[in-house]
Write a structure and sequence with these properties.
mainly beta, seven-stranded mixed β-sheet, four-stranded antiparallel β-sheet, 48% strand, globular
Length: 128
């Protein structure tokens, strides 16, 4: 079982940068695909970026492609999301998530129902 905990959110001006971090407990982290989602009040949770177990495969939502970078350090059980050129529409609560099961493949999950473990979320506010 993997339990994610996010950190690094905050307030930033448009055009600025933020780095989110996700620390995960559990012995199976290094074999588990991870992802970042975001959600605004009253809206569905939206896929942002995902990474396979090794870090060799990544997938991004079109809205963040070229601006966000997901990475992982399996030795430290962490996943990061580097965000640059932030826009007001990036304002959301960001969630780190772990896939429901170990998956040693190039698979990157993009659907929320493929993830079984979620962090509590961290708020990102981008002011115009």
């Amino acid at each position: 079982q993997v339990q994610p905990v996010e950190s690094g959110g905050g307030l930033v001006q448009a055009g600025g940068s933020l780095r989110l971090s996700c620390a995960s407990s559990g012995l199976s982290f290094s074999r588990t695909p991870m992802g970042w989602f975001r959600q605004a009040p009253g809206k569905e949770r939206e896929f942002v970026a995902g990474i396979n177990w090794s870090g060799g495969m990544t997938v991004y939502a079109d809205s963040v492609k070229g601006r966000f970078t997901i990475s992982r350090d399996n030795a430290k059980n962490t996943v990061g999301l580097q965000m640059i050129s932030l826009k007001p529409e990036d304002t959301d609560v960001y969630y780190c998530a772990a896939h429901r099961s170990i998956k040693i493949s190039t698979t990157v999950a993009t659907q929320a129902n493929e993830y079984g473990y979620w962090g509590q979320g961290t708020q990102v506010i981008v002011s115009s």
